[in-house]
Fold this protein.
Amino acid sequence: MSAQFSLAGLLRLRKLEEDQRAAELNSARDRESIGLARSRRVRRDLAEGAHEDPTAHASLASIAATRASSATMLEELAEIDRANAAEVEAAAAAHSDAHRKTLGLEKLEERFDEKQRVEELRQEQLLLDDLSSRAWHAEHGEERS
């Protein structure tokens, strides 16, 4: 019976952590993408509505207030986009760190598995050598001590 990798439980835990970080990264990227699309849509809509020709003082004041409000809204959207980008960067760093930790354990497991295979082959070779030696001695009428 072959021994099991002693860090198998930790490796499973690290893989779960890596999967969780990958899901968080994908979620952050989705939020960033939605936010950027929203910002583009708002900018496009504001650009399309900017062709008004004011004829009265009230219209001019209304347009000025709308533009000031729009500028504030665009700055708020830009701040949200920056926050989303920072969240993606942090999630990517966390995922990278989790992947690095998992990778180190996977390499240890591969080395352990390779040592196990070598030992199993060595044991098999010893058994084959013993069997062939017994067969040779039996064939030649010699007894082994």
Q: What stands out?
A: The helical segments are 8-48, 57-139. DSSP finds two helices and no strands in the chain. The chain has a mean pLDDT of 89. The two ends are 29 Å apart (CA to CA).
